[in-house]
Amino acid sequence: MxxxxxxxxxxxxSIVHGSGRGDKNIMAGQIxxxxxxxxxxxxxxxxxxxxxxxxxxxxxxxxxTLKFNLKDMNVTDCLLDSQNILFQTNDGILLLAARNRLxxxxxxxxxxxxxxxxxxxxxxxxxxYGKFCAFADNWPNRAxxxxxxxxxxxxxxKVTFHITVPKKYEVIANGDETEFASSGRTAEYSYSMSVPxxxxxxxxxxxxxxxxxxxxxxxxxxxxxxFPEDSITAAKSFQNVPDIIKYFESVIGPYxxxxxxxxxxxxxxxxxxxxxxxxxxxxxxSFTGRRNNDETVAHEIAHQWFGDDVSISNWPDLWxxxxxxxxxxxxxxxxRDGEERFNQQxxxxxxxxxxxxxxxxxxxxxxYSKLEELLNVENYDKGALFLNALRKFIxxxxxxxxxxxxxxxxxxxxxxxxxxxxxxxxxxKKNLDPLFNKWLYEPGSQSLFN
Length: 450
What we know:
Blueprint: H1 2-16, E1 31-41, E2 49-59, E3 63-69, E4 74-80, E5 83-84, E6 86-90, E7 93-102, E8 107-116, E9 122-126, E10 132-136, E11 157-166, E12 170-173, E13 176-183, E14 186-197, E15 204-207, E16 210-215, E17 221-226, H2 231-237, H3 241-251, E18 260-265, E19 277-281, H4 285-288, H5 294-302, E20 311-312, H6 319-337, H7 339-356, H8 377-394, H9 396-410, E21 414-415, H10 417-428, H11 433-441
Helix pairs in contact: 3-5, 5-6, 6-7, 6-8, 7-8, 8-9, 8-11, 9-10
């Protein structure tokens, strides 16, 4: 026991004196999480939660201790392969000691029970109409405020939810609803995502929803989950969703998931691309009707392929998510409305970049103090403009063929900028190093647009 405490303190010190950005996979090269099963109780009378998260993982190298991200939760019990193990929490890290050494290539199951009030990542309160709601909002590494995980996009995993709520509310989450059970005053909704996704996309929402359904021409179910007061406005706002999916399927590949839900929520972002369940803020034009919101909706739908299904390996490559979503949204409007609309989109993107860029900034960079700083014009706008420059350089035939090859090769997995460059170089049979270096690794300049 005393020896274990010393080990924990040594590990804790190494964590506290890390980068401070929380942007690393804390078990990189040691374990691979295969699945999370999140059992969670939500009440409309408190903002605290009771939960047990089960984590299945494989061991990549022999080890004695485990680390998971978990912030400000009260952990009550930890079981490894059904046996109690010692644990300690420190500075957002849950440290666990295995009874016996975990050997390479072995499979294990960890169950962590905990409770508390999430300080972030999971909002439990009232919506704009003063009615109860609960919504997860995880980007970039805020999932670990409400469930233990490897809170980094490089370790994708399957996820299953068992969410218990008061009976009068509905639940939406990633993947398919697999079971519904009602007992007394509560109901349990079960959802399962059959392909691996990033932790920042693992979400659920609970509310009094109005639910409607349509589908794409290829048979993908499309749901609207909105507050009842906004259901009519949302139906008009989302009428082009099947057409948007159809276009992206034609130029990228089949839709990655079993459904798409557009959800009115409490996300703090203008839209959050959670896999198969896009969350849009309750103040969004999609629900207020103030203006057409197709550009945001198309952007978030493009993320289902780029960012969600083909996910970044490390944060400096965020343009592979945001730049792609920005550019493919513009491509959708080119296909629907013609070249003039596309050129208008490009001019808007150029204008945003010109107003917001720093003269010394590059697209691919690790020069940031916190992850939110990566939500910048380099990753969104310059990333999109680079894709347009690449398209011009190699031609439409090679560009769109390369996009399909890139998606096919890396679907359900992780990528780097070099991975993308290799595919596009192979397809186009051109040396793309100078173009990639100029646009992505050197500071921006208006001369790039000429």
